[in-house]
Design brief:
Layout: H1 2-6, H2 18-30, E1 54-60, E2 66-72, H3 77-93, H4 112-128, H5 133-158, H6 167-175
Helix pairs in contact: 3-4, 4-6, 5-6
């Protein structure tokens, strides 16, 4: 599916492992869950980077002081974008099975433009606020994990109930949801 959409195989630096693809396939296609992946685990070169990504962040305390704390996830926008690249490839590889069970003929789950919209909006936010990267990274992670299901329910309530809300619509709505960001 990825090759059909992008007209070629993924670049080596964003090529997911079979385990990464399978985990997202089970989560999204088989279980129907939101397209969440933890970027402290879903990393480029999955087998080589098998340990969780962590970075140090300064957390404010009640007395106004700060304490250093290890936080899961990519330590910078560049590291996040590397994880996003693997995530995007995985998502573009997925398809829903067709009525006859054939995966090759099934519906695409994610559109490239929806993923690009989300990426560009988050990239702009993170570049505007580099001093609080840890907050941007946490908000983005929570968006995919917690906010996506809320957005999907909200979009479903607005639409005709016979219409299925796509994850592409959710990615786009999340990117444009200024109140959340």
């Amino acid at each position: 599916n990825y090759t059909r959409i992008k007209r070629g195989a993924p670049l080596e630096e964003v090529e997911p492992t079979p385990d990464q693809i399978n985990a997202l396939h089970i989560r999204i296609v088989d279980l129907g869950a939101e397209p969440y992946a933890d970027f402290s685990i879903l990393t480029p070169h999955g087998r080589r980077t098998a340990k969780r990504l962590r970075h140090r962040s300064w957390m404010p305390q009640e007395d106004g002081s700060y304490i250093a704390e290890e936080v899961p996830g990519p330590a910078s926008l560049d590291a996040w974008e590397a994880c996003w690249g693997v995530y995007e490839v995985c998502l573009l590889m997925l398809r829903f099975p067709s009525d006859d069970g054939s995966v090759d003929q099934g519906d695409e789950i994610f559109s490239p433009i929806a993923l690009e919209t989300y990426l560009q909006h988050f990239r702009r936010l993170a570049k505007e606020h580099p001093e609080v990267w840890h907050l941007c990274q946490r908000a983005e992670d929570r968006c995919r994990a917690e906010h996506f299901p809320r957005i999907r329910r909200s979009l479903s309530a607005e639409k005709d109930h016979s219409q299925v809300i796509t994850w592409s619509a959710v990615f786009t709505a999340a990117a444009l949801h200024d109140r959340y960001w």
